[in-house]
Request: fold
Amino acid sequence: MTSLDGTAPATANLLRQGLRNIGDMIRIEPKRFAIGAFGAMVNTATTLFVSYVIGWVVGQVAVPAYENGEVAVGAVAIGVAALLGTSVLRFASMCARRIGAGAMMFQVQAHWRRQVTRRYLALPVSWHQKHPTGTLLSNANADVEAATRPLAPLPFAVGTIFMIIVAMGVFVTIDWAIALVAVCMFPVLFTLNAVFATKAAPRAKRAQELRAEVSAVGHESFDGALVVKAMGRETAETERFTASTEELRDAMIGVGRLRAAFEPAIAGLPELGTLLALLVGLARFETGAMTLEELVMVSFMFSVLAFPIRAIGWVLGDLPTSVVGRRRIDHVLAAAGDMEYGENAPEHDGRAAKLEFDSVAYAYPDGTEAIRDVSFTVKAGRTVALVGATGSGKSTLASLSARLTDPTAGAVRIDGVDVRELTHPHLAATCSLVQQIPFIFDDTVRSNLALNRPGIDDTRIWAALADAGADKFVGDLEDGLDTEVGERGTTLSGGQRQRLTLARALAGQPRLLVLDDATSAVDPKVESQILSGLKHSSDAASVLVVAYRRATIALADEVVFLDGGRITARGTHAELLAGHQPYADLVTAYEQAEAEREFDEETTA
Reply:
C-alpha cells in the first residue's frame, strides 16, 4: 500500500495525494468498487436514455397530437413502456451503486482499523507511553472515517464522469454550439472544486488534529474522574475541555464558512449552464440547426446533469480531510520499534524456569541510563527480591524479564535461551508479569481470569484464586465468578483488584512469575500468606519480586539491592541487614513509613 507523505499536503500535491489514497482504497476492495461503479454507470446511462425518450415523445407524440388533434396510441404505449423499463433499471442500478459504495467504505474502514490495531499491538510499551490514549482512539476511529469519506460518493462520481463523456458525444453530434456551452461549463466547474479542495486542506488538517486533542482531553478527564472529584478540580477540567471543544468548534466553523463560500457557485453553475444551453438551443432551433426533438432532449439532458455533477464536487471536497486522515493513519502504520520475536520454543517438563540477567543495561530514548551492567540469576524454583530506592531500576528489570522492552546491552535469558529468540506464545506461557497498578476488564470475574486461554476451566480458576488469597471474597460476591466487576474493576477495592490480577497470572500456570510491587494494596499479613503460599505451592514457579515490606523481603531466598541502576549488594535479607548499611537504612525507612501509614489508617477509621 502506498504511503502518503508525512508533511502537510501542499496545494500542488493535494489532488495527487487524494487520488493516490482513493486508488489504494480501490485496491483493497476492487470487487465492491466495481459493483458500485457499474451500477452508477448503468444508472447514468438510463438517465440519459430518459432524455432521449422524452425528446422522442415530444417530437413523435405530443407535437403530432397537437397539430393533428389525434393521439397515436401505439407511440404512447411505446413511450410508456420505455419509461417504465428505464425506471426499473434505474432503481436496480441505484441499489447496486449504493450497496457497492457503502459496503466498500465500511470494508475499507474495517481493514484499516484492523491494521492500526495490529500495529498498536506490535509496537513496544515505550511507543505507547509517548502517545495519549485519546489520540490513539482517534487514529482508529475519526481518522479512519475521514480517510474513507470520499468512498461514499465515489461510484456516483465515476458514473457522472461516464455520463459527461456520453453527453458530450451527444452534444457534439447534435450541434457544435451546444457542445461549446458544455465545454465551457465543465472545466470551470472542475476548477472551482479544485480551488475549494486546496483551500480546505489546511483547515481540514487542523480540525482533524483538534478532534484527536478533544478525544485525548476527554479520555484523560474521564479516566481520572476519581482524582478530579477528590481534588475538587471539576471546574478546571470543565474549562480545559471547553477550551479544546471551542477551538474545534471554531476550526469546523472555518471549514463551514469556506464551504458556504464555494458551494453556492458549485451548485449554481450547472443550473446556469442548463439555462444557457436552453437559450442557445432556442436560437439554434429558430435558425433550423436543431429539431424540436433535439432541443427538448438537450435541455432535459443538461437539467439531469446538474445534480450528478455535484458528486464530483463531493469527492473533491472530501479530499483534504481524506488526505489528512490518511496521513495520520500512515503515521501509526509507519511507526518504528517493532519487537521481533524469535522462532525458538524449547520443550520443558513444566518445572520452574531459570531467569538470567547477563551484563544488562537499559537506556531511555533520550540517552538516560536506567540500569547498567546488571547480572544475577533467579534459579529454578527460587524467589529473588529486588530492593532499592525509587528510580533505582527495579521496575525496568521487571519489564525486561517479561520482555515488555529489550535491553540496550547484554542479554536476558530464560532457561539459557535469550528471550529475544523465543516465540511470543512460548514467552507468554512461560512468564507472567503482575504490575503494581492492576488492570481489570469491564467483564465478569471468570472472563478476567480466563481471558479465553485454552485449558483454563473453573477448577483452575478457583485454584488460582485460592493461591492469590482471593477465593473468599470472590465466593462472597453475589454471582461468584459471573459477577460483573465494572470498568477497571471499580466495584472492587484496590487490594481485591491486585489479588485478581495475581490470580489471572497464576491461572496460566507460568513457570516464571514477576511481581512488580503487585501486592502493595494488600494487608501485610495477607501479602506474606500469599507469597509464602506461592513459594510452597505444588505448581511453584521461580519468582522475581519487587518488594518494599520487610516481611515480604524476608521470604526471598536472595535479595538483590539496587542503587543508581547498579547492583551494589546481594545476599539473604539477614546478611544484607547486618553487612550493608544502605540496605538496612532503606528497609528500616520502608518499615517506618508502613507503620506510620497503618497508624494513620487506624486513627481515621
User: Anything to note?
Assistant: The chain has 21 helices and ten strands.
